[in-house]
Amino acid sequence: MEAFVSGGAGGVGAAAVVGVFVAAAVVGGFVAAVALAERAGVIAPRKRPNAPPGQPGLNISLSSLKLKAMVAKFSSISTRKLSKALTVLTRDKSMVATSDYGDFHKMVKRYVMSSTLGTSAQKKFRDTRDMMINNMLSTFHKLVKDDPHVPLIFRDVFKDELFRLSMIQSLGEDVSSVYVDEFGRDISKEEIYNATVTDMMMCAIEVDWRDFFSYLSWVPNKSFETRVFTAEARRTAVMRALIKQQKERIVRGEAKICYLDFLLAENTLTDEQLTMLVWEELIEAADTTLVATEWAMYELAKNPDKQARNICYSVPAHSWHYQPKRFLLGVFLVMPGTALPRNPEVCGDETVTEEHLPRLPYLNAVFHETLRRHSPVPLIPPRFVHEDTKLAGYDVPAGTEMVINLYGCNMNKKEWESPEEWVPERFTGGRLEVADMYKTMAFGAGRRACAGSLQVMHIACTAIARFVQEFGWRLTEGDEEKVDTVQFTAYKLHPLHVHLTPRGRM
Ligand code: HEM
């Protein structure tokens, strides 16, 4: 297999700063285009006989790199490297996703998995997820009944319910308003959403040009700083108010099963760490699941033939192939690998639930193909090589920054036939091996693999199946080519407008 190398050759001298962007990795069925940007410094890099080539656009064969080798390397490349904006917004790495790999990261990742995102923790929020999906369906029905000719805006409905789930899971309740000392007034749920989610996603992509020229970091960049620090202060004020409100609930003796109550009981964190971790769960749960589901519904609305009939085909319960497994990368897997059966069961009148998911191969294929074509996290947050290591056969020195370009990998013509087309059938028919299902690397890999992959699968797959069971989906005319994205997590630039036709099940 091949992957691409981009960038320019370069050395780093006291005066000249030339970045080296390197390569990509193929990992036993996993492909990752890895752009490695050598850190600018004042000392020239050591001579590296096997340094990655630096010619722009050079193709190299990387098939020798095995999955095991890549996973083994994660101990050397699991430290985060943040932009200035992210350093400010994450309070210098006080979160699971942005902390350096070490004792703090291990502890807080364990916390988030045991409290809310791991397999058994997810069971505690099953009712909340079901409520969320039922509420969305009721709203769709109501909107269609009110005016069947007006297209509805998918995101408006999904966003509200997802944020409700996110609040219940992280704070213990669906907060409708909160008094913020710093603002001197109550703020609404929408304002909470804007301060903790929307503004943060916008700020996360703020670029400070000094990130690229560290030796000029003394030059002021006031407008950047004002924007980022103001948004950060608002977010922190709102989070403190939300946590204060919930602490009052706990004092009243109303303990809840949620992340905040869990962290308070652990009693190992500073107030700042606690605030940041609760915010992390709030934003992570409220964002990418919406992105992935909206893209899936866009593609299904564009391809009516791939809706209910295919999605609800299931394989027999005794077929172990589709039992969920935990794979060695820590990523939740549903095993693919068999063709759709000749006489499949069709869910028919039976409402799809999470229990059905392992037996709905086409639905899983829709999910994974959507993650490939519309990577919700197109670039894996930068990592930092903290010890000399070998990657994809190349010597990579400590101090190298690494960005995995998932979008680039997933649109690579050498890896995917007609990559610009959305074709779930790539993931059915027994053509792929187990590891290939995660060839998209949508959830990263290794020790830093996504903590929320199981939750996303539960919500997105059940929602997609229920949505197409209940309604026929059709795009608004002229929306077929609206595939542009915006923000850090590949939001659809043009929110999905759809016409829904009830299938007469309710
Ligand atoms: C479609 C939805 C999602 C996608 C595509 C996604 C993707 C990713 C990716 C690519 C990473 C970085 C992995 C790496 O560096 O190798 C990551 C990390 C993470 N994600 Fe997700 N994610 C999704 C949803 C979620 C949700 C819903 C949550 C929580 C509610 C979540 C929590 C996290 C956390 C805590 C980390 C940091 C893990 C660590 O550093 O150890 N993610 N995710």
TrEMBL record:
Q: Which SUPFAM superfamilies match?
A: Cytochrome P450
Provide the cofactor list for this protein. heme
Task: Spell out the coiled coil positions from the record.
Answer: none
Query: What keywords does the record list, in alphabetical order?
Result: Heme, Iron, Membrane, Metal-binding, Monooxygenase, Oxidoreductase, Transmembrane, Transmembrane helix
Query: Where, per UniProt, does this protein localize?
Result: Membrane
Transmembrane region positions? 12-37
Question: Which residues of this UniProt protein bind heme?
Answer: C450
What biological-process terms (Gene Ontology) are attached? ent-kaurene oxidation to kaurenoic acid; gibberellin biosynthetic process
GO molecular function terms listed in the Swiss-Prot or TrEMBL record:
ent-kaurene oxidase activity; heme binding; iron ion binding; oxidoreductase activity, acting on paired donors, with incorporation or reduction of molecular oxygen, NAD(P)H as one donor, and incorporation of one atom of oxygen
Q: Entry's Pfam families?
A: p450 (PF00067)
Main subcellular localization, coarse class?
Answer: membrane
Q: How does it sit in the membrane?
A: Single-pass membrane protein
| Entry GO terms, CC | chloroplast outer membrane; endoplasmic reticulum
Name the protein family: Belongs to the cytochrome P450 family.
Provide the protein name. Uncharacterized protein
Source species: Oryza sativa subsp. indica (Rice)
